[in-house]
Design a protein that fits this description.
Rossmann fold; MRET; alpha/beta; 2 domains; globular
């Protein structure tokens, strides 16, 4: 099956998102296209033949044979530091995918959508936001939890999109350092945050939650406790390798 095969991909562009996150634009041979929310496996091969692979969410809509992934550099990571810091334009990696069919959003969905991101969990949700902009009028609300303003990935684009698009609302939750004059003190995301910035359960939204395992489990539990339908809650979690 073509999605399970490894294919070569060359780096054609890179751009920093934060001090630790970098978006890589890869040109993949015979890319079949993907849905927002899907991911790929990226494989590196050393000169001595040693191989290592990791999964990364796709950050943007399909653009021909080009795809984008945003890599968060992990301390003591084996793959992410090389991708984030050392992979150079024209260098090649291998990709397998697109992968995943549950944690996806399709433009034909008309119901309200709530996106809840923790840290780099914003990446697949950003793909949904970007696809929606040109294909759908479904109302989106994003609650994005980060340690500090400096950790916001895609901050400028999210500000621009929320200012220009009346169907997209963005709320920030800062867990350690909040901006000056922010009425919300630093702290973890709470049920009050979900109630203030999300959709009420009787609106029957589809909810996508992505982030570290503990964050995702906590948010899912809060959503269920406030009456959201479990069948409408979709989660994607990650942890250190």
């Amino acid at each position: 099956m073509v999605r399970s095969a490894w294919r070569p991909a060359a780096l054609v562009d890179r751009r920093p998102e934060t001090a630790t996150a970098t978006t890589l634009v890869l040109q993949a041979q015979d890319w079949p296209g993907h849905l927002p929310g899907q991911h790929v496996d990226v494989r590196l091969t050393a000169e001595d033949g040693y191989q290592a692979s990791r999964s990364y969410s796709i950050a943007a809509p399909t653009d021909g044979d080009r795809i984008e992934v945003t890599v968060q550099r992990l301390e003591n990571g084996e793959v992410s530091p090389f991708l984030a810091d050392d992979l150079a334009v024209d260098d090649e990696v291998e990709l397998r995918g697109p992968l995943g069919g549950w944690f996806v959003w399709r433009p034909e969905q008309r119901e309200p959508v709530l996106l809840v991101a923790g840290g780099s969990g914003i990446v697949p949700l950003m793909s949904m936001i970007r696809v929606r902009a040109g294909t759908s009028r479904a109302p989106f609300r994003l609650i994005y939890s980060v340690r500090s303003p400096a950790d916001r990935i895609y901050a400028a684009e999210l500000r621009r999109r929320s200012a220009e698009d009346g169907g997209l609302d963005v709320a920030w939750v800062h867990t350690r350092v909040a901006p000056e004059n922010d009425p919300r003190p630093p702290g973890r995301l709470t049920p009050d945050d979900l109630a203030a910035h999300g959709w009420p359960p009787d609106f029957e939204p589809t909810v996508y939650v992505c982030g570290p395992t503990g964050f995702v489990e906590s948010v899912a539990a809060m959503l269920l406790a406030t009456g959201h339908d479990a069948t409408r809650i979709r989660t994607e979690r990650f942890g250190g390798a």
